[in-house]
Task: structure prediction
Amino acid sequence: MKWLLILVLLVGWFDTQSYAVTVLLDPGHGGSDMGAKMFYAYVDKYGRKRNLHVLEKDLSLIFAKKIQQKLKKQGVVVHLSRSYDHEISLDARAALAQKLKADIFISIHMNASTNRTSRGFETFYLDNHNDVAVKKVEDIENVGLTGDQLIIKQIITDLIVERTAKASKSLAESVHAGIKKKTHKSFNLKDRGIKPGLFYVLAMAKRPGILLEVSFLSNPKELKKVLTSEFQEAYSKAVAAGVISYLRK
Ligand SMILES: [Zn+2]
Result:
């Protein structure tokens, strides 16, 4: 009986132990930069036809806040690069990571494509590569960069990549596996895989970082899915579980 009590106490301790790390969650876009935009047509409970304007900047914030809540429960210190709808440059987001001495940087985005059948979730980590398909996504998420930033981008990225690529990839694997476990079957979310990418915000943040594309707003079925609290909860829990599993490694 005494041993059982000790065991229960130990499990409880492991369950609530805090992690000496700081995570910076970065909800993509904000303010006049809305990210992907989509209309969601539905019929309300009074039978009236409604048209909801869905914006990536709003959803990225919803997911970031939910992930923050889940991680905080696990004793992780979590900050958001923005906690309401306002514009914040990629440089300011990266500078915040430096200021907070964040150990991990996670940028959250929603995907969109001109092909309405494109679907699924994907995880990017900072790395060098020449993949054309990935380049397209990078261009969307790197929007707002000007001349000088583009020139220094390559130089800085090369140095940072060397230092953080291994940890970024490991973080990507843990988080991606967490998402797959909780959404692949239960929400029929297609696994598009883990991909290397050169994202300015990840490079400038100068720490292990990943960029999540939750799913495609341009796909009507996925749009409906991401608007449900069931999916938002499951996805956020999955990301938090993935981060915890990375920290335990
Ligand atoms: Zn985005």
